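Data deposition worksheet. Section B asks for the primary sequence of the deposited chain exactly as it was used as input, without tags or linkers unless they were present during the calculation. Section C holds the resulting structure in token form. Section D is free text for depositor observations; keep each observation to a single sentence. Incomplete worksheets are returned to the depositor.
Section A, Depositor: J.P.
Section B:
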Amino acid sequence: MGKINVDDLRPGMVVASDLYGPNERFLLAAETVLAEKHLQTLKAWGVTEADIHDISKSEVEERSYARFDQDCIERARQRVGERFVLADQEHEAVAELYRLAVLREAEGLENEPEAGDTDIGPKETVPAQQFAETLPPLEMTDVIRENIQFASLPSTFMKISEAINDPQSSSRYIAQILSADISLSTKLLQLVNSAFYGFPQKIGSLAQAVTIIGTRQLVSLAQGVSLISHFSKIPSIIVDMEAFWKHSICCGIIARLISSGQKKGNADSLWMAGLLHDIGRLVLLQGIPTMSVKFLRGRAGIP
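Section C:
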């Protein structure tokens, strides 16, 4: 018996102890033989691991690595190892994070184009570097003296905030507010129908999403999307907003999972904190882009 990461669970495995989701919601009884529908349910409810009969973590690790060529795994370990050089790899959580990072890196290496493949060009890194090289020397006093203007937030964000704090607001009313913003509605439905939630059937409306994942969770998503979308016009040469968005979403998810696992704090608040932890960068990049690029590159040790 051993605790197995949810991504490593497979149909036919047998649950060794009762499984609970966030807020102690009962999901599966001990001795349940896992089927595909069970795996989808566990992912949808944010379950990260499960006790499984007759299998150990070391066996799961060997199986996961066996999917890749040994050379590919070694190259992935070398790349990932540079990021974990200061981490305590004896710690159980760090060791698991390292394993998952190696697998993700190995998948990326497998999908890399062959040498000499001219169909796929290099990523847009050279223009950004050239842009930074033309910037004047930066002094912190210059940044402090700048009067950065904070533009007003979208009206939908304010309406959502008022509705969630109004005890008389219904989930149907909140769904109507969200539906009025077509761009926001589209992004929310894309997130709800993403692999993270793993619902077996496509969710076609915000009213249905509210019913399934809950008002507060959907509102948290909407607030985060509204804030970050507010900065969507920052030129791609300054910041890759798609990469920034994915990073922010991952941080929000991890913060919520940590909160659920430790049973401490408000999961929605920590989700928002993780999602928006880098929002200050966008404020600076939008308000004083030239100075901000120079400062961030200097902080990263890039000339």
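Section D:
Strands lie at 2-5, 19-20, 26-28, 49-52.
The two ends are 52 Å apart (CA to CA).
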